[in-house]
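Hey, can you fold this one?
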Amino acid sequence: MADIEEAKERVYAAAIRTPLVRLHTNIGPEIWLKLENLQPIGSFKIRGSANAIGRVEPTELERGIWTASAGNMAQGVAWNARQLGVPCSVVVPDTAPDNKLEAIQRLGGQTVKTSVTSWFEVFKTRHFEGVQGHFVHAFMDRDVMAGNGTIAVEILEDLPDVSAVIVPFGGGGLACGIAAGFRELAPSVPVYASEVKGQAPLSESFQAAGPVAIDYTPTFVDGIGGPHIEPAMWELSSDLLAGSLEVTLAEVAATVRLLVSSNQIVAEGAGASSVAAGLSSAESRDKIVCVVSGGNLDSAKLATILAGGIP
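Sure. Predicted structure:
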């Protein structure tokens, strides 16, 4: 909790305190939306990146900053690098959506494409040939998680009687950061992950009682999921999280449509997964907070979803 409190000054120098609003629907439980899609970069990633970069010595920043990201962490790192006037490079998978690549470049970041397999390796090695500078890990970094943990404080300030929280799970930095805050401030409130069926390594790991690898095929839900969970993140997740709730691609697409029609909110697939999990969950909770982690959805994919399809 001390790390989260210390992170606040750096986080709020870049991020906004996002609103918590009720989902306007008559179906399912009472759901509240934590709207991280309203951040300056359209994603929660601005929080953790601001805290992590803010703790780096200025002399070390002179060599530049780099990260590995499919889009949202890249935008967070690029945004903060631009504020400091230092160069930023981003290693991206060749499946990264064009709208996120364009956003990185608008913020001054230089993108380096590689295969999905090679990209995932960067999270283990923290190295990529030809890219130099200070590396900011997208999720497996204490400072990044502490920055994300500020979301827990905001939720409890706005809805003290929250009964459960659902958080999209990619690498685990968001879910574990929020869950760490709840462990300290409201330990009786369970924090669940949300994942998509077929790309849910955390759920599979919970079932196996240990970290496992899965067959992974990228989908339009590009901000979460992967072939495995890092052992260090499994250790944290298995301790901090109450479990993982799986939803289908069809349920995610339907939830994107619902958020647009009911609350005029555009959420990317990852951000909508938590709401989809809340709507379909067997949990009989009074007040569920679903973290809408981002809203950077490609316009063509959004059009397909609004027309009733699945990209």
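The longest strand covers residues 30-35. Let me know if you want another pass with a different chain boundary.
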